[in-house]
Amino acid sequence: MSRLLITGASGYLGQRVAYFAQQTTIWDKVYSQTWRNPPTAGEHVACDLADQAQLEALLEQIQPTAIIHTAAVTPAMGPAMTDQALWAVNVQASATLARWAAQHQVRLVHVSSDAVWGGREAAYTESDVPAPIHPYGASKAAGEAVVAALDPQAAIARTSLLYGQNPLDPNTTMALAMLRGERHGVLFTDELRCPVFVEDVAQALIELAQKPSLYGIFHLVGPQILSRFELGQALLAWNGIDSTGLPAGTTTASGLRRPSRVVVDNRTTQSQLSTILRSIDDVTRR
Ligand SMILES: NC(=O)c1ccc[n+]([C@@H]2O[C@H](COP(=O)([O-])OP(=O)(O)OC[C@H]3O[C@@H](n4cnc5c(N)ncnc54)[C@H](OP(=O)(O)O)[C@@H]3O)[C@@H](O)[C@H]2O)c1
After folding, report:
1. I need a labelling partner for 262 at 20 to 30 A (CA). Which of 1, 71, 114, 219 fits?
2. To test the ligand 1 pocket, which listed residue (6, 17, 35) has its Cβ within 8 A of the most ligand atoms?
3. The domain 3-160+197-220: what is its CATH number?
4. pLDDT tens for residues 59-69?
5. How high is the pLDDT of residue 286?
6. Which residues contact 12 (CB under 8 A, 6 or more apart)?
7. What does this protein do (predicted)?
8. For the residues 17-34, what does the mean pLDDT come to?
9. How far, in Å, CA of 88 to CA of 49, rounded?
């Protein structure tokens, strides 16, 4: 009997992975692990990933035959994103999953982030070595390193700013709040990323989970480069909202130290997948 374990199934990405995984007949059973919030699809299994013994007990109990590891401590957690939580979940739990997967010859797809880089003019390829500049990025880079070391057969999938309508993504929600004056701040015109439709990433992760011949690093990002401000404009337009008055600014003026230009090349990954990682123009033109 085939059993898929999705970690972080209540998260923005994990919800969509669980939804699509349940639509397929690939796995006999889909287990959705969460911590504080319930999942919207799959059979719920609760586990605090910061507790290694709890995680090991969960793995022994459900004996997954494949794992898609989306759970992470992310900036969405605000002040709860402590160094200790970053280490316990993004590094230690990833190591536990990778060790278990390698020992049991179970397929592991580990989700990582473009936050492993600090920004530069040239695009980053799958073979570029991580060089993070903040604690979250450092924890994701360390997570990648332990997974690659403990389970060299794992797929490590880096993604970028995720967007979608069902449910509405955090970037649109933030732009909307700024536009309505409910939230202070600006959207940066000098912070560039390769945003990607959450449903394309979810489908690509499911594809990777089925293809153990694909291992190492993969770039699940969109092919279009947008600033945070341009992304805000595009997402508001997609949702039928006039973005006139959306506040713009620069990271330079803000004085914040953030990765500026993180352009991620997805061409090698795209050539290996049948799931198309679409541009925002293609997605929003539907
Ligand atoms: N969102 C983006 O734009 C983006 C960009 C690049 C990379 N990524 C990567 O994509 C993945 C998913 O991100 P996301 O934005 O979907 O995350 P998210 O919405 O912040 O959700 C995080 C998930 O991790 C779970 N989690 C956190 N701490 C946990 C703990 N101690 N024990 C068990 N579960 C825990 C949460 O469970 P509860 O809800 O139950 O607390 C939730 O399901 C992450 O690996 C992230 O690094 C995301």
Report:
1. 71
2. 35
3. 3.40.50.720
4. 999 999 999 99
5. 65
6. 76, 162, 164, 167, 169, 170, 198
7. Catalyzes the reduction of dTDP-6-deoxy-L-lyxo-4-hexulose to yield dTDP-L-rhamnose.
8. 97
9. 8
CB within 8 Å of 173: residues ≥ 6 apart: none
Q: How far is the CA of 115 from the centre of ligand 1 (A)?
A: 14
| Residues forming a β-bridge with 107 | 66
Q: What is the DSSP string of 182-237?
A: SS---EESS-EE--EEHHHHHHHHHHHHH-TT--EEEEE--S--EEHHHHHHHHHH
Mean pLDDT score of the chain: 97
As a whole-number percent, the residues of the chain with pLDDT over 90 amount to: 98
pLDDT at position 5 is 98
- Residues ≥6 apart with Cβ < 8 Å to 263: 122, 123, 124, 192, 193, 194, 225
Q: Name all residues whose Cβ lies below 6 A of ligand 1.
A: 8, 10-14, 34-37, 47-50, 70-74, 76, 89, 111, 113, 140, 159-162
- Looking at residue 7, its pLDDT comes to 98
Please give the average per-residue pLDDT across 225-244, as a whole number: 97
Backbone angles phi, psi at 124, to 5 degrees: -95, 135
Report whether pLDDT(229) > 70: yes
- Of 122-126, 233-237, 255-259, minimum mean pLDDT range: 255-259
- Mean pLDDT value of segment 204-218: 98
Query: What DSSP line would sit under 145-192, residue for residue?
Result: HHHHHH-TT-EEEEE--EE-BTTBPHHHHHHHHHHTTSS---EESS-E
Q: Per the structure block, which two tokens stand in for 274?
A: 């049948």
The pLDDT value recorded for residue 202 is: 98
> CA–CA separation, 195 vs 221, rounded Å?
6
The span from the CA of 207 to the CA of 230, in Å, is 30
- Give nearest CA residue, ligand 1 atom 13: 13
